[in-house]
Amino acid sequence: MKNNKGLTIIELLIAVVIIGIAFYALIKVFIVLAPRDVDARSLSVGTHLINRRIEEVTMKSFSNVSSESAAAFPAPFNAYTGQIIVDYVTTADVNSVSASPTPYKRVKARVWGTKLPTIEGVTLVVTYEVR
Description:
The chain is an alpha+beta fold. It has helices at residues 9-33, 40-58; strands at residues 68-72, 80-88, 104-113, 116-126. The chain has two domains: 7-37; 40-126. The chain contains two helices and four strands; from the N terminus they run ααββββ. A four-stranded antiparallel β-sheet has the order 1-2-3-4, with helices on one face.
């Protein structure tokens, strides 16, 4: 009786080829998906910068809250650019821009960078001043 406990060279080669094809398919998937992945650190820094800008703007008096053009953040965040967009909105719908002044201003803070697509934070500033 023969002892058949081992693998033949042909069985071993077939196994190596199958594993090689599987690894090639996995690597190809990662190569395609990797550029689409947002860097978690960049997203965290961008979110921090949006919150910081919104806090700075909302600390101003209502009459001083206004749009700001796009500008780079100071170091160490100089890889990121931010912008503030302020619009008067209607009292009935805070998503509808008003042509005339109202007691509500919608503040949009936008941040983008080399590894970060544009992200946006929105808040509402209200005045109780009598006009």
